[in-house]
Amino acid sequence: MDELYGAGVALVTPFHSDGTIDFEGLEKLIEHQISGGMDYLVSLGTTGEVATLSESERKAVWTFTAEKVKGRIPLVAGIGGNHTAELVRQLEQFDIPGYAAVLSVSPYYSKPTQEGIFQHYKAVAAASPLPVILYNVPSRTGSNVSPETTVRLAKEVGNIVATKEASGNFDQFGKIMRDKPENFLLISGDDSVTLPMMALGGAGVISVVGNAFPAEVATLARMCLENNFEAARQLHSKLIRITELCFIEGNPAGVKTILHQLGICGAMVRLPLVKISTHTADDIARELMTLGVPAHT
């Protein structure tokens, strides 16, 4: 899966003020990513507010994204959940051309055992028409995919090719890197730890901040892959404050506000999410000025 090295971005789903999908804004966002040098795009991960989209809306977003990208860079579809049988049905019916892999979040809310997580992903991989990327984000799911389970899946299930790790646990990252098969990829799921995770041998990042700053995030990942960590550290430091502001009132409300201030798409989110406070929006505008990117609003 050479397509998964470097920087991917978990695309937001732009909405109009009435809550309908803003496909014009999505097209602007896609072009912003490609012109910025992003290596691949993830359509409808957590950042895409996939939990609030209907099945028909999900298909429309995946299809629109593939049609606009036109094969210029690889695409990954976010297809996950905690209802294994329903997820299997969705995967068996996924037939949208242009996608290279599936990103599937670990079952949330149910808090399965490690054996339950293993069996869930085994069923997912068997049903998926595309290679599968595990996604471990305990802060959202309520359970952790242990390094032992990750490595077991990597070794025993041939269609599982990578993991997006957002546990924040460097002991866990180190154990995965130590024990995984050589061709299994460890990908950062947290912008703030991309540099140190890649220093451990990670393959790259699936970024949130990259929605707004694709060139910077893509360059950072490329520097790390080239072992140019001195330059990467400087760029990492430059992005620390804007990364913090992205998440301080939740994702994707923060990065959508940045995109709105950059004139790319609106800041609208769907309930139960709400827009960030005026105070944080003002902080974002000031930080954009510091970075030399004046806000449009």
Tell me what the structure shows.
Belongs to the DapA family. Its EC number is 4.3.3.7. Pathway: Amino-acid biosynthesis; L-lysine biosynthesis via DAP pathway; (S)-tetrahydrodipicolinate from L-aspartate: step 3/4. Keywords: Amino-acid biosynthesis, Cytoplasm, Diaminopimelate biosynthesis, Lyase, Lysine biosynthesis, Schiff base. By secondary structure, this protein is an alpha/beta fold. The protein has one domain: TIM Barrel, CATH 3.20.20. It is 45% helix and 12% strand. It contains 12 helices and 8 strands. It has an 8-stranded parallel beta barrel, surrounded by 6 helices. Helix 4 links the parallel strand 4 and strand 5. Helix 4 runs parallel beside helix 6, helix 9 runs antiparallel to helix 10 and helix 11 crosses helix 12. The longest helix is centred in the last third of the chain and has 19 residues. The protein is globular and about 50 Å long. 48% of the residues are buried. The model has no long low-confidence stretch (mean pLDDT 97).
